[in-house]
Amino acid sequence: MTPLEFLEHLNIFTQKEWMTGEETKLRQLVEGSVANNTSVSNALKEYDEWAVVYGKRVTRVVLDCDYDDQLQCAFRDKLMNIISPWDDSSYEMARNAMDWLEYEMKTYDTDGFEASVWEDDVRGCESFYEQIDGEASCYNSTLFDWLSANATHQYYVDEAIEEYGSPDSIGKAITFGMVGMAREIYGDITRAVAEMFDAYYEPEEEEEYD
User: Fold this and answer.
1) Cβ(166)–Cβ(173) below 8 Å
2) How crowded is residue 110: how many other Cβ atoms within 10 Å of its Cβ?
3) Among 20, 48, 155, 158, which has the minimal tally of Cβ within 10 Å of its Cβ?
């Protein structure tokens, strides 16, 4: 297995379409049906009626892990210390980081590959910072949506203001916060992948010719 193939195998992020409030509504209807001793089929019919009026389908980034796969399970455990199950943007940034690492690996010189050297190289390359800066939106509506989506986002904004000083607009402050969050996640993802290389990667044996 090459370093690129190893990295691709670790990328367990995928996209899934689902309906906002779907699981909660279904649970409420089924629990109500059981409590009232009514037919579950009636609950499902009521759900269909609810979905037509209130249902909104969205696409989310999720983890698609093969639980029989030791590598993917080990990496998933590391990911759960980086991303938050209640923060979609953390999943999106982590997925983007993995995709970027794959892209960079395609042109990386893997002769005599060493994880620690690779980690230093990718964290020090110009595209690392370009990719992080690209995570911040240029639209105010998106910036404020991100800020209100999770309470921890305020922390990143506060940290950015403390580090860089107060900017001349709220939008810039939020932008700095988004970049700070991206920098943390990209760094943590890169470190987690390097740790996986150290723990599990076995380079291909070179063929010997007589």
Assistant:
1) yes
2) 13
3) 48
- Can you tell me the distance from the alpha carbon of 78 to that of 91, in angstroms, rounded to the nearest whole number? 13
H-helix or E-strand containing 18? strand 13-19
Torsion, Cα of 19, 24, 28, 34 (10° steps): 90
CB atoms within 10 A of CB 82: 18
pTM: 0.80
Give the Cα separation of 70 and 201 in Å (integer).
12
Chain centroid, CA 1 distance in Å? 25
Q: How far apart are CA 42 and CA 31, in angstroms?
A: 12
Cβ proximity of 28 and 90 under 8 Å: no
Q: What is the pLDDT of residues 167-192, one digit of tens each?
A: 888 999 999 999 999 999 999 999 99
Largest CA distance in the chain: 79
Distance CA 148, CA 32 (A): 32
